[in-house]
Amino acid sequence: MSKEIKKLVGDKAAAYVEDGMTLGLGTGSTVYWTIEKIGEMVQQGLKVQGIPTSIATEEQAKRLGIPLVTFRDVSHIDVTIDGADEVDPELQLIKGGGGALLREKMVAMASTRVIIVADESKIVDRLGQFPLPVEVVTYGLDRTAYDIEQLGGKSTVRKKDGETYMTDNGNIILDCDFYPITAPEKLSQQLNMLPGVVENGLFTNIADTVLVGTAEGRVIIK
After folding, report:
1. pLDDT (tens digit per residue) in 172-185
2. 196 and 209 in one domain?
3. Which of 38, 89, 190, 214 is buried most, with the most CB atoms less than 10 Å from its CB?
4. Please, are residues 42 and 13 in contact by the beta-carbon 8 Å criterion?
5. Helices first, then strands: H and E counts in the chain
């Protein structure tokens, strides 16, 4: 998706933000533009506060002057805006391509409303062509990978610049091939029952609204 389409969708999502809200600030190349827009709105007098889902988003929000809080300060979030790697017809998601799935899920689950921004390439009939990210602890990694394989997933340790990728939480991500994922909610529960698994990138029954940018420059609301 071009930068122009990402910005179009990102700006559209910012229209859901209202004065006085506590916001969940997502992570990714599309929601980046939403946060930029919110920063403009704050400079124009909008009063909001945000909880970021990654160190990168925290740094962006600070640069823009968006006031930040933590879960120590608030008990709930009004609206979270975030991206996705895949969205199926039931608005079930795969997230975590950017490595922030644990914080993203914590923030989303604390939110009254979750709005997803994506381009049409992320819309799929069935989840799983995008490898499912699973965040795991370093201890016992081979055993955790074996346990995931017993559930039907072939896993690969995520690398970045030739080195093992580490999340903001100091964990490893296994990118897992489970395609096709026919029962995402069940698989999510099975994965999270495994010792060594911190969280997985299946976001089931979480998204309320999905804004989809098209190549024609339109935004479709699902």
Report:
1. 999 999 999 999 99
2. no
3. 38
4. no
5. 6, 15
90 is catalytic: no
Question: Which DSSP state fits 68?
Answer: B
Nearby residues of 164 by Cβ (< 8 Å), 6 or more positions away: 157, 158, 172
Q: Please tell me the distance from the alpha carbon of residue 132 to that of residue 183, in angstroms, as a whole number.
A: 13
How far apart (Å, rounded) are the C-alpha atoms in residues 191 and 181? 13
**Residues in the chain where the model's pLDDT stays below 50:** none
- Does residue 181 sit in the same domain as residue 89? no
Strand, helix or coil at 135?
strand
Domain span at residue 195? 132-200
Exposed / middle / buried, residue 80 (Cβ in 10 Å: 0-12, 13-18, 19+): buried
- Please tell me which residue in 58, 104, 135, 199 is annotated as part of the active site: 104
